[in-house]
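2024-03-11 09:14:02 INFO worker-7 job=invfold-0412 stage=load source=structure_tokens
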């Protein structure tokens, strides 16, 4: 069967209806421009839903032909089928993970009042999660490589769900620190594990799109988690508990239930998938293995020790480090910053906090698909880092309206950049080196998740100004923007490693 041809049987059996390509790119802004303030969130949710639907069903770009037997579905059809079967589960897992990781942002001001935790102590506790998370990443990912994604993701979800609920037991700074560190250990391996898992199912040119959809979980977590957290904070006094205690309990439990769904429904690799025929699974695994071998051979990196010697991998680490400083500074401090905009209730703060993350979801949907080759990846990565710098600068100097616009610009670019960065290791590494390399990038990069909140909290306590730490973010991301100019993939001509690709 041709790479792009669908038979009537394909359409009937797999419910794949042809859709107009890219229609939602113009439809979403057009609808939003026509809506009033009261329906802003509703229309944006509708737009995101339409974007996701079209992204799963739109016509694919021509794919490289593979040898198929009669009756085998085309690569384009299989790609859509795999997206529909595994990506919703992965996105749901990351939504819950990110809510449980960052919900202390909504609880910050209340915990400071109820427990006497200082801004610096809050920043340390927020960042300590990433210290233990980062140190546990590589061992966790290598274990997953041995035991399989399904079992290991289930284990991760159950332990982090229980520990997130235990955050309700915090009594002071030290118990806050300890539980944040334990939560980091429990959740370690989820993100790099899923990124590695995606490399077992998708060709290189489709991975930025798959990574982008997975990272929708971060945006959706904040869109859902911020208003939900604000609502749960209103339960203060119910059953003798503070509102923030109810928030940790109610938001921690769902991870345990979803873990059982993952165990039942997520196959480890194509050859274990019941929705693929044996021939289809073998063909897909062969094409992916050939592509990985070509990239690793071109870069000369097929063993784990080569990870630390590859300058491009180290470059990705440095860029990701600056990126994570920005992401988690905004995640942990945006609710508190918005609280300075006026006399707002916790629910209002939660709703306003969700606005930048709605734009981050749009960025994750629209931008990564443009990164189809090395030069385009550099261009998009560089532009995204510049957008983050501009957004934080506007947030630092603007009032409530301009500040929120600036944070929305920065958030729009967060997950336009991140999925592109994680396509680079798979073009330069293979096998255990790839699993360890992805974990290495995420591990070192996540130290930015410690540094960003710590510096934000420290500067807030020193100056008494919640905005003062934003300029640190601007400087670090400006450095990251410069570094993106040197990115190149494993099979790419070094002479083309420039923004223009020439």
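2024-03-11 09:14:09 INFO worker-7 stage=emit residues=502
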């Amino acid at each position: 069967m041709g790479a792009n041809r669908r038979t009537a049987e394909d359409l009937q059996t797999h419910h794949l209806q042809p859709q107009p390509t890219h229609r939602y790119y113009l439809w979403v802004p057009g609808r939003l421009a026509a809506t009033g303030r009261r329906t802003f969130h509703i229309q944006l949710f509708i737009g995101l839903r339409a974007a996701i639907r079209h992204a799963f069903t739109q016509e694919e770009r021509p794919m490289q032909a593979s040898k198929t037997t009669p009756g085998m579905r085309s690569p384009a059809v299989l790609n859509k089928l795999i997206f529909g079967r595994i990506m919703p589960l992965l996105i749901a897992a990351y939504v819950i993970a990110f809510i449980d990781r960052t919900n202390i942002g909504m609880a910050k001001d209340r915990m400071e009042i109820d427990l006497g935790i200082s801004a610096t102590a809050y920043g340390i506790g927020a960042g300590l999660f990433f210290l233990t998370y980062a140190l546990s990443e590589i061992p966790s990912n290598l274990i997953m490589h041995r035991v399989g994604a399904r079992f290991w993701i289930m284990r991760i979800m159950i332990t982090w769900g229980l520990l997130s609920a235990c955050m309700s037991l915090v009594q002071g700074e030290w118990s806050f620190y300890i539980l944040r560190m334990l939560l980091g250990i429990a959740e370690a391996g989820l993100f790099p594990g899923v990124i590695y898992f995606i490399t077992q199912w998708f060709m290189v040119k489709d991975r930025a799109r798959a990574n982008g959809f997975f990272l929708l979980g971060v945006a959706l977590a904040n869109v859902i988690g911020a208003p939900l957290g604000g609502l749960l904070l209103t339960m203060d006094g119910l059953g003798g508990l503070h509102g923030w205690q109810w928030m940790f309990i109610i938001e921690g439990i769902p991870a345990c239930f979803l873990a059982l769904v993952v165990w039942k429904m997520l196959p480890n690799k194509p050859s274990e998938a019941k929705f693929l025929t044996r021939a289809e699974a073998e063909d897909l695994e062969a094409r992916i293995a050939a592509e990985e071998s070509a990239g690793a051979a071109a870069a000369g990196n097929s063993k784990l020790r080569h990870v630390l010697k590859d300058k491009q991998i180290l470059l990705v680490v440095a860029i990701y480090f600056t990126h994570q400083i920005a992401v988690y500074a905004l995640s942990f401090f945006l609710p508190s910053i918005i609280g300075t905009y006026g006399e707002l209730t916790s629910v209002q703060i939660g709703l306003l906090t969700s606005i930048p993350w709605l734009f981050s979801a749009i960025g994750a949907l629209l931008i990564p698909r443009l990164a189809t080759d090395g030069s385009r990846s550099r261009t998009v990565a560089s532009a995204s880092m510049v957008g983050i710098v501009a957004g934080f600068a506007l947030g630092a100097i603007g009032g409530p309206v301009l500040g929120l616009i600036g944070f929305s610009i920065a958030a729009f670019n967060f997950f336009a950049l991140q999925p592109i960065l994680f396509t680079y290791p798979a073009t330069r590494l293979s096998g255990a080196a790839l699993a360890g390399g992805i974990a290495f990038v995420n591990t070192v990069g996540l130290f930015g998740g410690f540094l960003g909140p710590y510096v934000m909290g420290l500067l807030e306590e020193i100056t008494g100004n919640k905005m003062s730490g934003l300029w640190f973010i601007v400087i670090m991301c400006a450095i990251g923007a410069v570094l993106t100019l040197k990115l190149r993939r494993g099979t790419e001509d070094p002479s083309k490693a420039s923004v223009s690709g020439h």
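2024-03-11 09:14:09 INFO worker-7 stage=report msg="The domain at 74-496 is CATH 1.20.1250.20 (Growth Hormone; Chain: A;)."
2024-03-11 09:14:10 INFO worker-7 job finished
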